[in-house]
Amino acid sequence: MDDRRSGRAGPAGQAGRRRGHPAQDRRGHVSTYDETTLARVALTWLAEPGTRSVWKLAAELGPAAALDLLLDGGAPEQGLRDSVAARGQAGAARAIATEALKRADRLGARVVVPGDDEWPGTVEQLRHLRLPAPRRRVDVETAPPLCFWVRGPWPLAETLERSVAVVGARAATPYGLHVATELGYGLADREWTVVSGGAFGIDAAAHRGALSAGGRTVAVLACGVDRPYPMGNTALFDRIADVGLLVSEWPPGAEPLRPRFLIRNRVIAAGTRGTVLVEAAARSGATQTTRRALALHRPTMVVPGPVTSAMSVGAHELLRDEPDARLVTGLAQVLEEVGRIGELAPVPRGPDRPVDLLDDDARALVEAMPRRGTVDVDDLAARAGLAVRTVLRKMSLLEELALVVRREDGYALAAAAYRPHVPR
Known about the structure:
By secondary structure, the chain is of the alpha/beta class. Helices cover 42% and strands 12% of the residues.
């Protein structure tokens, strides 16, 4: 029995390379973080995650040198200089980063940075993400994360390797909740990780479906991993932290500010194999996640809903606007999009009937038979437009198949002719 099925905690990957800056955990043990990890944490605090100029500086100069440059007022644009100066009023960046690492240790959480074994390499593709016609800052500042805060027993990269995002409306309908729960359960039962944002509605339904199947689920948060939001999902977050993962780019204690929900959506899109949109109103953050998945050329799927439902407007508009978005109606079609070659969904069809196996002439005779009463061979030949000798030959076959019965005054249609075939 594997760890996922038995409920035992799997091995978590190591946090960032640690040395230099002490951080004492709840048991009194002391761990240390290297300067690079500390600088990544400080940079994320100074500027919101996704800020492209900060990510570029860290990539070109190294995180520690980039931090020193920003603290010395050397940011490449005025807006970033103003942001760094404003944050600097709250305290020294490295001291605040050290305190965040201590708080994470007390919480039992860890920081994961590039170069760690459990760093998910797929999020690095965000360096290439360019959204068409960006209108807001959040549509431009889509750079890869500098670090992740992780709470839970599983290695982050391994957990996301086979993962699907299930997203949608907070004010979900019973239809949407049912679909999301079924998808979450089915994906987890097939040993796929279910990723969502932990919100009310579709997110929570997908998480709960995965948990019900005994599988892994990941909640990507827009606040600290120690601050459940919404509060009504506290028990759900505690359960995810026990058997799945809580993940955030913001340090423990960070508040769930509105723009942060939009910022974290790029991680949900980039960290997973594909994204399924279950329900979305005309203005929905879930459609934003889906459009980021499309821009990253990831499989992007939409579940259709009733045309009378306001919660399906955004989903239907996305299907109309985006040729690469695929309509899916269930688990099999989702797996066909994200799974291996050859993992195809069955083609929907009605029940088989015995007449489906007949050739054209035999089928024409069945169609020409009266639904009640009998018919003689000459009349049947005229009705079907076939030669009498053909009718005699085919009626013998139909009689053997129990589709017609012969009586003294002609042939009658048997009930089995249109009865659905049920495989035994």
